Amino acid sequence: MTELTLINPSDETVISTIPATTVEETDAAVARAVVAQRAWARLAPLDRAKAMRRFADAVDGAVEELAALEVRNSGHPIGNARWEAGHVRDVLEYYSAAPERLFGRQIPVAGGLDVTFHEPIGVVGVITPWNFPMTIASWGFAPALAAGNAVVLKPAEWTPLTSLRLAELALESGLPEGLFQVLPGEGRVVGDRLVEHPDVRKIAFTGSTATGTAIMAKAAANVKQVTLELGGKSANVVFADSDLEKAAATAPYGVFDNSGQDCCARTRILVQRSVYERFMGLLEPAVQGVRVGDPNDAATEMGPLVSRAHHNKVASYVPDDAPVAFRGAAPDGPGFWFPPTVLTPSSPADRTVTDEIFGPVVVVLPFEDEAEAIELANSSRFGLSGSIWTRDLSRGIRVSRAIESGNLSVNSHSSVRYTTPFGGYKHSGVGRELGPDAPFAFTETKNVFIATEES
Ligand code: ADP
């Protein structure tokens, strides 16, 4: 493939055609990054911090522009896209403090002084998916740059436009040439080359578990570090003692946000049997009330799916004889529209319960008691997020501790705050992004001992 054809998911028009980066161009970008990184790492911490703040300011001035690009390229509702662009600015601002806070330690030892340093790894490859193109990009590039690294970023084939604009904004704000480069292109060409390139010392990947597994295996050949943020099939556990109205009213938000193209989506609603019928009665109008339509309309809550290929994949999980409890609305074509869909499969072994569908499809299953709720929640090979609805705070904490998952919320569906760590258990990933420790994940720890005793 020599070029990428970008399609607007809400009307299927061609936005543009852009050249796909080749292996040779990838190698040249890595060579530029090596040079830029050495100079960047030598800068005083305050100067790196100031450069990051100028980049954040540039993003702040471009929030509307970035949001409009994401609406066109990814079909995100404008309200969501504005939030995403603002989030990138906030992430940059937050990590602009990191260059001056990469504290090492002084460790008590006999015969001298022992200190640790956190040094940049070098060139970091960031490989991103199409569901949240700019926010997920910033979770990689902001802490990596703050820790003194250079970044070569490979955005997903379908959605490179906001990442490309962010690279321009970095340059316009004064970040050195070569320090943050975005290479649109194919995963099997550019992504694969970044994973095997000896000068790329770490890969921060977000995407499917299948691709993440392949990247981890390949990175092993070079003993290359990886962080992997992969799939999810998170549980939304609703106990009988919860505020059932609130649990039902918020459940669509927990799963249909971004058209369900969200690794944190609570795609398995587990409801205590004694309130199952009542909960379903409350959920139906909430699902039918989701406003699906024109992403440019500020009132829209759910846009289209990202592409025809992805639409076909999601649709394959809802054949004509699927156990559909009820559905919301969706516009007719053109556009990759799919209605919010609630399924009630008869068995927890059904593939709609086990697979990450990555669309606006949720399954509802009953449970008897707390033990069964935990067992069902943990029966997935994934472990990224989850919600627990209960008025019993002890139970909320107990069940949170028992669920094998990286991010849980009690009486809420909130998973992502840039100030707190984010990542998965089991097949949902390796390592954590965001939070105060993220820059340290882009460093090598060096220990130096200085003898003070005369021998
Ligand atoms: P999906 O299946 O949802 O499209 P992927 O996990 O395949 O998600 O894609 C996530 C990112 O990984 C994209 O940027 C894609 O181009 C990239 N990618 C795909 N295959 C590879 C690979 N073999 N090596 C490196 N990156 C890849």
TrEMBL record:
Domain Aldehyde dehydrogenase residue range list: 4-448
Keywords: Oxidoreductase
Keyword Oxidoreductase: yes
One GO molecular-function entry: oxidoreductase activity, acting on the aldehyde or oxo group of donors, NAD or NADP as acceptor
Top-rank taxon, per record: Bacteria
Transmembrane domains' residue ranges: none
PROSITE patterns assigned: ALDEHYDE_DEHYDR_CYS, ALDEHYDE_DEHYDR_GLU
Active site residues of this protein: E229
Family to which this protein belongs: Belongs to the aldehyde dehydrogenase family.
Name this polypeptide is given: Aldehyde dehydrogenase
Biological source species: Gryllotalpicola protaetiae
